[in-house]
Amino acid sequence: MSSAAGGMPDAGGMTAGEETRRGMTAGAGGSRFILERYRELLPVTDATPMVTLGEGGTPLIRSCRLEAELGLEALYFKAEFSNPTGSFKDRGMVLAVAKAAEAGAEAVICASTGNTSASAAAYASRHGLKAIVVVPSGRIAMGKLAQAVAHGAQIVAIDGSFDDALRVVRELAEKHPVALVNSVNPHRIEGQKTGAFEIVDELGAAPDVLCIPVGNAGNITAYWRGFSEYYQMERVGTRPQMWGFQAAGAAPLVSGVPVAHPETIATAIRIGNPATWDGAISARDESEGLIDAVTDEQILEAYRRLAADEGIFCEPASAASLAGLMQQHAAGVDLSGKTAVCIITGHGLKDPDTALQIDADRVESAAESDAVERALGWD
Q1: For residue 211, what pLDDT is reported?
Q2: C-alpha span between 377 and 257 (Å, rounded)
Q3: Is 301 helix (H, G, I), strand (E, B) or coil?
Q4: CA-wise closest residue to 82 among 32, 14, 12, 19
Q5: Mean pLDDT per segment of 10 residues, for the chain of length 379 residues?
Q6: Cα distances (angstroms) measured from residue 58 to each of 42, 94, 123
Q7: I need a labelling partner for 40 at 20 to 30 A (CA). Which of 189, 242, 264, 361 fits?
Q8: 3-state secondary structure of 286
């Protein structure tokens, strides 16, 4: 079965083209499938396998409480956890693995703190390729590792950090016929820039401020590229300030020097030497934005507020975007009249152990209605 773009069926048996014809569309260009929707802006050829798991087209959720508290004209959360493996990584991985398959690769390899491994393994499986993931032993959330296991990836846990893992896979990709699919792969950045396209397509304009967690720094680089390309094409009249936020224990872009032993509860951004360092600095400087650090306590407060006040359950690293925005407001930055978008990069079930550390409002009761009434204080 082939799509209008010569593609393969998606996870439900439909091609992206058939999905469009049956009305399952999202925004400008019709198809939710980003390789079709933004084909003219991506390195897609007639030989590129048009394989999708349903990535892209993620919701832009308007704040119902925090917007007013922060004095904003509008606050939105870009729910990237709605991607098929639960994180933003799928935007870049759908393209990176497709291009690897197009080039004849039989295997892909990546270093990961979790989300990259889950995404790489899923898309490799979809293309019939082998996935090899190298992770820092004992420093990856179990929800993410479980995904890579389920998709059949070969996992190598090393005695070292993510930065060590990335160094290793880069060396291996130089010596062996495997495709490296970390964000040093330019196709990853190309795919991830589509998040910026979607924001503009939905809002009809660029936000004033784009708040984003920063770990390996590929995503802030990609979003800035997306906004800049739309601006150059005159599809939008302005570009946002890019506000990137690192965890205080893993903030090399803030200090200006690599961190040998990064530490933070936000495992997805526990990275001491970002591979896309220069891209992040360019995004900050060209947008007249900032890259700052937030503490684990600030991240957890934002994590709790997102869940309790906005109904959004994300992994801790995702909450760094809101934590930073709240920090700027507390420091006296005037946000009145501004529209801000916080990128929510991954789902809370990626790291359930963090949620279980929150004090729950829980009591035990006998299995009778009057007992439950007493437990609820209704008697």
Answers
A1: 98
A2: 55
A3: helix
A4: 32
A5: 33 36 38 92 97 97 98 98 97 98 96 90 97 86 83 94 92 95 95 98 98 96 98 98 98 97 93 95 98 97 97 97 98 98 95 77 90 91
A6: 19, 15, 18
A7: 242
A8: helix
> What is the edge-to-edge ordering of all strands in the sheet holding 74-79?
60-62, 74-79, 339-344, 209-213, 241-247, 290-294
Task: Locate 34 and state its tokens.
Answer: 């980003």
CB 57 within 8 A of CB 51: no
What span, in angstroms and rounded, lies between the C-alpha atoms of 9 and 98?
14
Q: 306: which 2 tokens? A: 């997102």
CA torsion sign, 158 to 161 to 162 to 164? negative
Residue 152 backbone class (left: φ over 0; alpha: ψ -120 to 50; beta: rest): left
In contact, 270 and 112? CB cutoff 8 Å: no
In angstroms, the CA 21 to CA 31 distance is 9
3-state secondary structure 216-271: CCHHHHHHHHHHHHHHHCCCCCCCCEEEEEEEHHHCHHHHCCCCCCCCCCCHHHCC
pLDDT reported for residue 377: 92
> Using alpha carbons only, how large is the chain's radius of gyration in Å?
21
Q: How many residues does the structure list for the chain?
A: 379
Q: What is the largest distance, in Å, between two alpha-carbon atoms of the chain?
A: 72
366 CB-near residues (< 8 Å, 6+ apart)? none
- Amino acid identity for residue 6 in this structure: G
Assess contact for 247 and 264: CB atoms under 8 A. yes
